């Protein structure tokens, strides 16, 4: 059976394709995928899913390897081999709030999609906060008064800037990562090792 690769769709997809083409693999079928979620090439079976679902598929052995943001691995702690960083998908995690914001005396309310990362960030600071889980457009929360601040991904800083928010603290940086299913690495070792080595070499040469 061909190696099965789970790819995070959306932002990381195009960057992965550039990287993968640079390794010398044929990417034509991937470029022409349209709305299809599964693509077969001569060498691999690919499928596309949201980042956190990529970890679920890899953890359960449906995919042998996966490409996922480092933020997802830290937030969800899946039981997979976290192999190595890939040279794309760079971003940071930041605490941000409104310009000149007067913090309240009482417990702070922090909005984030990354509730576990937020929890450990404030735990390390010894501060107790209320965390409000949001699924997107997190920058709205301080503007609309739902929260005092946000913990979110920053890449260029444009979203913060255009919404009148500023970084209070930056505390983690990420890139995309290659992950693998623990048993696949043993059972399909002969097939997977050359692929993983090629990825590693490509990541090193950037
Ligand atoms: N500016 C950015 N915003 C969000 N994620 C980024 C950014 N830059 C790089 N990344 C990385 O890309 C990964 C996927 O981001 P993407 O925005 O496509 O996923 P998502 O936020 O789960 O998708 P959606 O917006 O469809 O809910 C993230 O997990 C992160 O590692
Ligand atoms: O620093 P920047 O380059 O502006 O990128 C950061 C923004 O991108 C992400 O949102 P996304 O576009 O994924 O939308 P979402 O809010 O729906 O998650 C992230 O949550 C920030 O809002």
From TrEMBL:
Residues 52-200 form the ATP phosphoribosyltransferase catalytic domain. Keywords: Amino-acid biosynthesis, ATP-binding, Cytoplasm, Glycosyltransferase, Histidine biosynthesis, Nucleotide-binding, Transferase. Its main location: cytoplasm. It is found in: Cytoplasm. GO terms for molecular function: ATP binding; ATP phosphoribosyltransferase activity. NCBIfam families: hisG. Catalyzes the condensation of ATP and 5-phosphoribose 1-diphosphate to form N'-(5'-phosphoribosyl)-ATP (PR-ATP). Has a crucial role in the pathway because the rate of histidine biosynthesis seems to be controlled primarily by regulation of HisG enzymatic activity. This is ATP phosphoribosyltransferase. The lineage of its organism: Bacteria, Bacillati, Bacillota, Bacilli, Bacillales. The gene is hisG.
